[in-house]
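Dear U.,

For the methods section draft, I wanted the exact inputs and outputs in one place so we can describe them consistently. I've listed the two proteins in the order they'll appear in the manuscript figures. Please don't edit the token lines directly; just add comments below if something needs changing.

First protein:
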Amino acid sequence: MAGEVSRRDFLNRLGVTVGAAAVTASAAPVMVAAKAEAQQPAAPKGRIPDKPYKTGHMTFVTGPAAVLGEQSYKGHILAAEEINAQGGLLGKRKIETVKADEAAGTDANVKELRRMKLSEQIDCFTGVISSGNTPALGPVSEELKCLTIFTDGCTDFLFE
């Protein structure tokens, strides 16, 4: 029957959409600033950093949930490639991605977030599918003052 969408196709499209939304949302404040600067003839305040804009993306790469994680990562990369093809953020900062496997478990994921922020010096953190991981990662992100966008797996606990 024409027009039917299989579960696999639906999940593939959903993953790409969620991943793209995460990268776009993490870059939105920078892109809005660029648009505002373009509309004003005055020179921008401060200097645009020369280093790339690093995004840490954690999702399931292995295990049963990898079917969702793979699509989330592909969407993230697709959006980053589109932005980079246009010169990067503010026409200068290319987006680089540091990838982590969420299947490692909550304790390992918390350590990985800390490592990405402190060693890799990520500018923002995106992804996370499991609602079992977000309550542990949310407070750590706040502690590290790391812009974080959970693309899935949110729980009411995060907002209490």
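Second protein (the one for the lower panel):
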Amino acid sequence: MKEIAAGLSAPFPISSKICFNVLLCIADLSSLQQQMIISITDSQMLLPFASANISGIITDRRGKHKVLAHRAVRALICRAETERGLNRKHIIEGLKGSLQRMQLEYVDVVFANRPDSNTPMEEIVRAMTHVINQGMSMYWGTSRWSAMEIMEAYSVARQFNLIPPVCEQAEYHFFQRDKVETQLPELYHKIGVGVVSWSPLACGIITGKYENGVPESSRASMKPYQWLREKIMSEDGRKQQAKLKELAHIAEKLGCTLPQLAIAWCLRNEGVSSVLLGSSSPSQLTENLGAIQVIPKMTAGIASEVDHILENCPHSKKDYHH
């Protein structure tokens, strides 16, 4: 079953009240959407401003809705050597800290975010196996790993009778296709590693709001996102906006919005188990969830029309049908 994982996303710190309202909307809407799960992430990159509200929603509504809580262990940003990367100490202590903050006994998935060349693969896999055996997590996955690195983890797990990763978090959208469509399918077919894709709207580029430039209130107008502004205003960025205008006609034909088409397009890939959505408002969340109704309309013909417009369909050595 295809799933949409909805969570909170904001390019800047927001108040606990706004955070609570968006997450409450997520919880309420999930009761109406059978193919939706609530995604609660605890990452070192996230500020703790919403911890109490998040745990409150989980506590009050876990019995009514599907909740996916996951911990992202990062290979960057810490002080001491054992407080960063994917070494055993950091993985175990980091996950314990996450469970305390979210007031949970366990998370569904713990992700190893970015590979760590300074830690032996065996140590990483043994640490992940340990937290699963200790009941702190049900599964573990990778994020931004190459197919070769994922295969190495799988081989180490099989060699030492450990637990292999079950999924890879990968960026996937209209303008970022190569990894998910050419590198990961073989892992999906050979060892069953699924894809949890993120950024289906390419940091807002695919919403259409940058069609006439960068609005003052948009993410790309903020200083930390200068790289996004430059990307949008570049020659390639303007070409992308032109293609989005054409794709909007397909969306209109299907009776949906451009973001809904983009999300449904991601989910049509057989190797994609779930698409992560980041929403900064209840209205944005409601619109994006409409993609669920578009999935049945994503026929081979529609996919071919999209490919014709994008002109970036990667060619795999093997023919894996979507």
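Candidate sentences for the figure legend, describing the second protein: The first strand starts at residue 3 and ends at 8. The CA atoms of residues 27 and 38 lie 7 Å apart.

Thanks,
Y.
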